Amino acid sequence: MSDLLEKYVRPEKNPGTACKGCGLRLAHRKVLEAIDELGLAQGDVVWGTGIGCSGRQTFVTWKGDTFAGTHGRVYAMATGLRLALPPEKRLILTVGDGDAFTIGFLHLLNAARRNVDMTVVVFDNLGYQSTGGQYGVTTPLGSKTDSSPYGAWEPNWTQRGFDVLRILKEAGATFLARHTVLQGHEPVDSLKQAIQNPGFSLVQLIYPCVTHYGVQALGTRDLATIYDWFRERTADDLTADENTHFTTGIVHDAVGSRVEFAAGLREFVATVQKGGGNG
Question: What CA–CA distance (Å, rounded) separates 211 from 225?
Answer without folding.
Answer: 13
